[in-house]
Design a protein that fits this description.
The protein has helices at residues 3-9, 28-39, 51-65, 72-88, 93-104, 125-129, 140-157, 162-170, 177-190. It is mainly alpha-helical.
Length: 198
């Protein structure tokens, strides 16, 4: 992705939904906190520090992703984007892959019953809220940027508690159903460096 495109993405206000529910801020204060956090997103950075690390990770994850994305070139392109946006948002890319599996099974055209779109199931009303109605949520780069930033926000807000953060992402705070699904997907297909699922 061109650097100019990456630059504007960092300032986006993001929100996600899911097949089961709409993940919206519950009150005005949370909404404003989310807006401020997302407007102060971290600067762009290269996601891989070492070419060898990149090759090892991409090969490993490409083999795992093959069941969902058959074309090898598409797999590598998707994995590069997942790694880039996850890293920019200080998220383990393996966690993002698990979220995508649960949300859409890697279908960039997925639409939930409540209208959430794309791989990470982003709610389209946010495009108008931030004055970017032209954003296309089926574009993988846009969708990953939205989804990763909002997940980063909830993980920070919940002080690293993945169960609570994932429930907030999904709009099901107080339930472990969604976080259990993501953890199961991570353990089954995307396990990487240890994550604290407690």
């Amino acid at each position: 992705m061109r650097a100019s495109n990456l630059g504007f993405i960092c300032g986006l206000l993001l929100c996600v939904g899911s097949v089961q529910s709409v993940a919206q801020p519950h009150d005005t204060q949370e909404y404003e906190q989310l807006r401020q956090f997302l407007q102060q997103s971290i600067a762009d950075s290269e996601s891989f520090e070492d070419r060898f690390d990149a090759e090892v990770w991409l090969l490993d994850m490409s083999n795992r992703l093959q069941q969902y994305v058959k074309d090898p070139e598409q797999r590598l392109q998707l994995l590069q984007e997942v790694h880039r946006y996850a890293s920019q948002s200080q998220l383990p890319p393996e966690l993002v892959l698990a979220v995508i599996e649960v949300e859409s099974h890697f279908d960039r055209f997925a639409v939930s019953r409540v209208g959430a779109q794309g791989m990470m199931q982003v709610m389209p009303f946010w495009k108008d809220e931030i004055g970017r109605p032209e954003d296309n949520l089926t574009l993988t780069s846009t969708n990953l940027s939205y989804g990763c930033r909002i997940l980063q926000f909830y993980i920070k807000r919940e002080k690293g508690n993945l169960t609570r953060a994932l429930a907030a992402y999904n709009g099901s705070l107080g339930s472990t159903r969604y976080s259990d699904k993501v953890e199961a997907a991570w353990r089954r297909n995307w396990r990487g460096p240890n994550l604290d699922w407690e």
